[in-house]
Design goal:
The protein has about 280 residues and is α/β, with parallel strands linked by helices. The chain has a single domain (about 5-205, about 235-265), classed as NADP-dependent oxidoreductase domain (TIM Barrel, Alpha-Beta Barrel). About 40% of the residues lie in helices and about 15% in strands. It contains 11 helices and 9 strands. The chain has helices at about 35-45, 60-70, 90-105, 125-135, 150-160, 180-190, 205, 210-225, 225-235, 250-260, 265-275; strands at about 5, 10-15, 50-55, 80-85, 110-115, 140-145, 165-170, 195, 240-245. The strands form 2 sheets. It has a 7-stranded parallel sheet, with helices on one face. Helix 1 packs parallel to helix 10, helix 3 crosses helix 4 and helix 8 (about 210-225) packs antiparallel against helix 11 (about 265-275). The protein is globular and about 55 Å long. The two termini are about 30 Å apart. The chain binds NADP nicotinamide-adenine-dinucleotide phosphate. NADP nicotinamide-adenine-dinucleotide phosphate binds near residues 19, 197 and 255.
Length: about 280
């Protein structure tokens, strides 16, 4: 596994982590696939992807309960990130939401707590005051945001008096690159980690057809890798980026873990950038 610094902290996190959307349900709880989800996440941890990303919104809280079962009895250190939903951005609501997430996760402390989406109806200064209180009380270790623009990241940082925002979680893949010019550049310059969600285009990359995918398949064939591995590796070519693919199929989990063992060369990276531009 390769590791990268989380923001400008001394902490290192795996470049490939574990997404959890859909495990334990989507907008509501669904226990029917819990066992498969627990096996997949447990396998991912065994393969050194010791970074789990979840959210209070996933499965209306049940996904966090599934994560708790994955963490149960493990002695190894796992970096656990969750997210507070925009409707809970008022000061007291942030504190209450964090406590509920900790309870469901079976943890005393979350490593990273992220604002899931911006909420223009609640002043960011109020939300960030609560996030700093959570750090001060030892309930969370780091503050992150998600789906924030450059301006919103700056505003969020200015609202903090002691802490630094360490990350912005945004959609980024070979087929979704709108963050490249602004958010990615800003994260690199300001020393934030960009956590790439949907790095396989929510499963569209595995199924994709057309001339750009021919280039992807040709490069993958030459390297003896799958197209999904090459697509994930392309995302990770950017210094400040880590990715959180979600996989329930054990073959997918194994493939994703293996991506952290090698790197694309510059030429293949650029060919892909052009083919998918
Ligand atoms: N912050 C946000 O607003 C936000 C939004 C969306 C997602 N996220 C986070 O990002 C995570 C990942 O994003 P995502 O779930 O939207 O999409 P994704 O990771 O791009 O794609 C997931 C899909 O790809 C398949 N897959 C995974 N690895 C594969 C492989 N090696 N080969 C072939 N297919 C593979 C999975 O299949 P199987 O499951 O069948 O293995 C699943 O259907 C989420 O789970 C969530 O934690 C955050």
């Amino acid at each position: 596994m390769q590791f990268r610094h989380l923001g400008r902290t001394h902490e290192s996190i795996p470049v490939v982590g574990l997404g959890t959307w859909g495990i334990g349900g989507e907008m509501g709880p669904d226990s029917s696939q819990d066992r498969a989800g627990i096996e997949a996440l447990g396998l991912g941890l065994d393969l050194e992807m010791k970074f789990i990303d979840t959210a209070e919104m996933y499965g209306a809280g049940h996904t966090e309960e599934v994560v708790a079962r994955v963490l149960e009895g493990r002695r190894d250190r796992v970096f656990v990130a969750s997210k507070v939903s925009p409707r809970h951005f008022a000061y007291d609501d942030v504190l209450a939401a964090a406590k509920r997430s900790l309870k469901r996760l079976g943890l005393k402390q979350m490593d990273l707590y992220q604002l899931h989406w911006p909420n223009p109806r609640i002043p960011i200064s109020e939300t960030m005051k609560a996030m700093e209180k959570l750090v001060g009380d030892g309930l969370i270790r780091h503050i992150g945001v998600s789906n924030f623009s450059v301006e919103q990241m700056k505003e969020a940082q200015h609202s903090l008096s002691r802490e630094k925002i360490v990350s912005n979680q945004v959609e980024f893949s070979l087929i979704y690159r709108s963050v490249e010019a602004g958010i990615l550049q800003y994260c690199q310059k300001a020393g934030l980690t960009m956590i790439a969600y949907s790095p396989l285009g929510q499963g569209k990359i595995p199924r994709g057809k057309g001339s750009s995918f021919k280039v992807l398949d040709e490069i993958a064939g030459n390297l003896g890798k799958s197209r999904n591995q090459v697509a994930l590796s392309w995302v990770l070519q950017h210094d400040s980026v880590v990715a959180i693919p979600k996989a329930v199929a054990t073959d997918h989990v194994k493939e994703n873990a293996e991506v952290a063992e090698w790197k694309l060369d510059r030429e293949d990276y650029q060919r892909l950038a052009k083919a998918f531009s």
